[in-house]
């Protein structure tokens, strides 16, 4: 009998972990981004607790310079691809820039679009400034993850991708933002690119888990971008210091494709075993009716002239 499928992780499971809740998820928590079925399958099979369909898709998949270029429809497209793999991990979807900035009705509608695409929670950037949006989404029964520190959707306002909270006032403001988000009911907060002491202070001040990226080791969990973790970041992109590459897949993939190019050019791909053949009778009849019969040496390579096993049903 196949092993029963493990229960899917929920937002309350994540929040409860900080309060010593049942070990449905790991401690520290692990979140990795994914944007399509293959990346979602690898993250889930590896045992991560959460899959973030991040708006980083704009940069790491779609080739833009920032995250401002994707819409709710773009995000829903990627969320759907991830959700259709039916992962155990909680699927968290990023609300993109301008999807929660214009009106409360639009905000809730956009969050609902991502839930209907298959997410179990949404994430949005900003602190006290976004409390109204957070409360409205929560009021629609949608779990919300916060995101403060370096918030890439504010890249122009922040003046670039820079570490945040380095001065005392800024660190205090971030702590106040985190407390306000936690009080409003978010189930977790991403802390991006803040000094480790600030991340520690925030982590110790709030009752929901903090998930760090470039925020040191004192957070309740860590998140990395799939392409960064697997060495799929391109050669011209400067890698932030918090990225640890666990594989060099871009290099390995290029080498594999180079081998394919060489095989095609050398005539060694496809082989007979990689080719669909006719039966001998069909080949003869084909010759009778003026077709070009398959090369005899290729036909004889097939053992006992057995009927071809169908690969494509
Ligand atoms: O979009 C994203 O990938 C993110 C992570 C960097 C936290 O928001």
Bound molecules: 3-methyl-2-oxobutanoic acid
Give the distance, in angstroms, between the N- and C-terminal Cα atoms.
27 Å
Residues in helices, as a percent range: 25-40%
SSE sequence, one letter per element: HEHEHHEHEHEHHEHEEHHHH
Query: What is the mean predicted local confidence, pLDDT?
Result: 91
Tell me about the largest β-sheet: 8 strands, parallel, barrel
Largest sheet, spatial ordering of strands: 1-2-3-4-5-6-7-8
Poorly predicted ranges: 299-305
User: What is the C-alpha radius of gyration, as a whole number of Å?
Assistant: 25 Å
Number of DSSP strand runs: 8
Inertia-based shape: elongated
Count of helix runs:
13
- Portion in beta strands: 5-15%
Structural class: alpha/beta
Could you characterize the architecture of this molecule?
- There is one protein chain.
- The protein is α/β, with parallel strands linked by helices.
- The protein contains 13 helices and eight strands.
- The chain has helices spanning 11-18, 37-45, 57-60, 72-83, 104-116, 131-139, 155-158, 168-184, 196-205, 226-229, 249-266, 280-288, 296-300, and strands at 29-33, 50-53, 90-94, 121-123, 144-149, 188-192, 210-213, 221-224.
- An eight-stranded parallel barrel has the order 1-2-3-4-5-6-7-8, surrounded by seven helices.
- Helix 4 packs parallel to helix 5, helix 5 packs across helix 6 (131-139) and helix 8 runs parallel beside helix 9.
- The longest helix has 18 residues, at 249-266.
- The protein is elongated, with a radius of gyration of 25 Å.
- It starts with 10 loop residues before the first helix and ends in a 13-residue tail after the last helix.
- The structure holds 3-methyl-2-oxobutanoic acid.
- 3-methyl-2-oxobutanoic acid binds at residues 33, 52, 54-56, 94, 147, 190, 192, 213, 223, 225.
